[in-house]
């Protein structure tokens, strides 16, 4: 009988032991124990993350990251990482999540998990002004006579290669380098995210036309490592909370409906 009671007790304890093990391995628990939330970003994607004139990182994502860290009761550490290496860096625990305007795609989702989308955007085209009478839609650029530029490893590059495969596609390390190729007349069109294109043409109205109707549907999400339901649950609940209490709307208006921040950006 004693052996049966011991065995029964062990069976009862097994689920608790397993649950404790899962919690110990959770990124959320490690953040709380560490006292620091590490977030991977890549500066230069206005207005999500960029540097001001003092060299500090600012932007829409950055403000959300600061608020998120306060909600956890921990310090915030932003880790600037090249975009083409940001998912490998997440997978090797260089930081806890990616918060850099990352589009949720099936290919990326094979490697990482995403929280619920926090914004939906799409690809648009910055066009060389001399083509304004010839090109009225992104479809018109699908011709071997045109040179299309975008940033390496982004959904802008993916969209350009998918929809404009007949054109010559060139990629650059940064979005600003690629956009300047069009402004300076060395390329015909730049394919990239609507928010960035809208800001770029506002600052560089000469020589460019914005075909501002997005031709892709791209939800943005925060990326985390797979196998961590606790952290994913917390992030989704946090996002629902800031959407409901007005925090998200206030930050959106600051960065997307005002240009006051532009005077502080290092360009």
UniProtKB/TrEMBL annotation:
GO terms for cellular component: membrane. Belongs to the bacterial solute-binding protein 3 family. It comes from Abyssibacter profundi. It holds the Pfam family SBP_bac_3. Keywords: Signal. Residues 1-19 form the signal peptide. PANTHER family: GLUTAMINE-BINDING PERIPLASMIC PROTEIN (PTHR35936:SF38), MEMBRANE-BOUND LYTIC MUREIN TRANSGLYCOSYLASE F (PTHR35936). This is Amino acid ABC transporter substrate-binding protein. GO terms for molecular function: ligand-gated monoatomic ion channel activity. Residues 36-259 form the Solute-binding protein family 3/N-terminal domain. SUPFAM superfamilies: Periplasmic binding protein-like II (SSF53850). Residues 36-258 form the Ionotropic glutamate receptor C-terminal domain.
């Amino acid at each position: 009988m004693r052996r049966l009671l011991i065995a029964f007790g062990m069976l009862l304890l097994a689920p608790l032991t397993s649950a404790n093990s899962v919690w110990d391995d959770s990124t959320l628990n490690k953040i709380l124990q560490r006292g620091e939330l590490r977030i991977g970003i890549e500066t230069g994607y206005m207005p999500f993350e960029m540097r001001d004139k003092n060299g500090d990182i600012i932007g829409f994502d950055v403000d959300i990251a600061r608020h998120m860290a306060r909600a956890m009761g921990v310090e915030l550490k932003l880790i600037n990482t090249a975009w083409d290496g940001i998912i490998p860096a997440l997978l090797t625990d260089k930081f806890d999540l990616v918060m850099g305007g990352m589009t949720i795609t099936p290919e990326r989702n094979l490697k990482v998990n995403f929280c619920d989308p926090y914004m939906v955007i799409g690809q648009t085209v910055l066009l060389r002004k001399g083509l304004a009478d010839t090109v009225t839609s992104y479809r018109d650029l699908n011709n071997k006579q045109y040179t299309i530029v975008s940033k390496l490893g982004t959904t802008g590059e993916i969209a350009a290669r998918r929809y404009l495969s007949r054109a010559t596609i060139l990629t650059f390390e940064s979005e600003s380098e690629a956009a300047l190729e069009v402004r300076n007349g060395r390329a015909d069109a730049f394919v990239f995210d609507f928010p960035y294109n809208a800001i770029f043409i506002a600052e560089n109205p000469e020589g460019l036309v914005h075909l501002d109707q997005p031709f892709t549907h791209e939800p943005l999400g925060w990326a985390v490592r797979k196998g961590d339901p606790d952290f994913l649950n917390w992030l989704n609940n946090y996002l629902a909370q800031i959407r409901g209490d007005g925090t998200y709307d206030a930050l959106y208006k600051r960065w997307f409906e005002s240009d006051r921040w532009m005077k502080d950006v290092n360009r």
